[in-house]
Amino acid sequence: MTPKIVIVGGGSTHWTPRLLADFANTASLRDCSVALTDIDEASLPPMLTIAKHITASRAISMNVTATTDLSAALDGADVVITALSVGGLASMAHDLEIPSRYGIWQPVGDSVGPGGIARSLRSIPVMVALAAEVERRAPEATLLNVSNPLTALCRAVSSQTSVRTVGLCNELVGLQFWLSLVFDADMRAIDPVVAGVNHLPLVTALRIGDDDGFALLRDVLDHPDRLEGQPVWMAPPAASHWHRADPSRDWTKADIVANNRVKLEVFRHLGVLPGSADTHVAEFFPWFVTPASDQGRGWGVHHYGLAGHAQDKADDGAWAAELEAGAEVPRWTSGELVAPLLDGLVTGTPRALPVNLPNTGQVTDLPDGVVVECMGTVDADGVRPRDTASAGAAAEHLRRVVASQELTVQAALTGDRGLVLQAMLADPVAGTLPFEHLVAMTGELLAASAPWLPQFAR
User: Rounded distance, CA 101 to CA 115, Å?
Assistant: First the structure.
């Protein structure tokens, strides 16, 4: 099988160069057809130049085309990748600034909390309309969503269409990476069992090689001094935003543990290990980003802020421009999960990957149908849950997170302002505000986001 892959949001300087390079680095995908489609016509020619550079430098036959006509792009598609952001940084400015005036500081602001809810309201109608077109033009295609808020977008699509939908996020790859640094382990030997949602994938059991990973972690927490001065096999990337206790020395295992304090504290007290970076994890709990910890900085939580998101976008643009000008195409994978998943589907080689799927019992604490993050098995038969697990002591908290997400999806689909307020009330962080403040903040967010919320103008 040589798949036809459609990238919606194909002008993205973040996603398209990475995905095309990953396809070129994956033997089973080097001959695939890729159709890029985007509403911004001017964004597509640079991506075609990058595609030509990649195919020429690797001497492969990957065929890449571009169009602004979504329907034409979807004809014959086997896989549709959605990489989009409705409103961009202009809308995200409101997501971050308005809640901050009410005392809610969001380190990222793209998944849950006021920012995640507002982003969902903007993006869900667009995603559902897009999925409906997939249903019409390519009903057998698999939709791979990499856009945030990933859980809410996947839930909206799976609840409103029959399109096979999988959400992909590489946060658990990051977990495997830092555990490999602490325990000198091969990342491939680190195998979690997961029950959660995107950006809060809760690891309920863990194997590191032949060992019980939770027992190893508890030993580290009980004897932290043992890691002082112990070197790591490679330094963390700058994009992790981690910090060394002593910047004048090399990275140590103790530094790695210190930069994962939030998730390790949750593990210490609740017995499950959040699998995302602390900057995401902290947005799901009301206990860490508080005035007492300088809005989470005392816990080592990095705040992107609008300037940080803008810098990431600028960095993506700069790298894309370098590739467009003929820079060397990386021979290593990006760490994103699209190419590994497609390789499993195309070759039939079984792969265990973190995936976001409708719940069919794999997370026992949650209702069927809600979208959950779990470990999946990917092969020629498709994508399916691998494990069955419970979030244990974190289950009640997880149910509250999911309740807010479910209300958010319904609010976005119906344009019901009352449901937006209910979603805010249910959210574990937004719901800590005084009622009158929460009502006012919700009203301000809806007013500021009105240009991107036509469903609420009815």
Answer: 13
**CA end-to-end distance (rounded Å), the chain:** 46
Using DSSP, state whether 440 is helix, strand or coil: helix
Tokens matching residue 350: 């079984």
Residues in contact with 69: Cβ distance below 8 Å, sequence separation at least 6, in sequence order:
37
All residues at 6 or more sequence positions from 162 whose CB lies less than 8 Å from its CB, including other chains: 135, 139
> Is the confidence at residue 458, as pLDDT, over 90?
no
Q: Which pairs count as long-range contacts for 418-424, CB under 8 Å and 24+ apart, including other chains?
A: 420/117, 420/121, 420/446, 423/117, 424/114, 424/117
For the record, the structure tokens of 441 come out as 């903040």
Contact (Cβ atoms closer than 8 angstroms) between residue 276 and residue 108: no
pLDDT in tens, 410-451: 999 999 999 999 999 999 999 999 999 999 999 999 999 999
Burial readout 139-160 (b: 16 or more C-beta within 10 A, e: otherwise):
eebbbbbbbbbbbbbbbbbbbb
- C-alpha 364/C-alpha 398 separation (Å) is 11
Write out pLDDT tens, residues 244-303: 999 999 999 999 999 999 999 999 999 999 999 999 999 999 999 999 999 999 999 999
Which candidate, 109, 441, 102, 121, places its Cα nearest to that of 305? 109
Burial class (CB in 10 A: 0-12, 13-18, 19+), 246: exposed
Supply φ then ψ for residue 323, to 5 degrees: -65, -40
- Rounded to whole angstroms, the Cα distance separating 402 from 404 reads 5
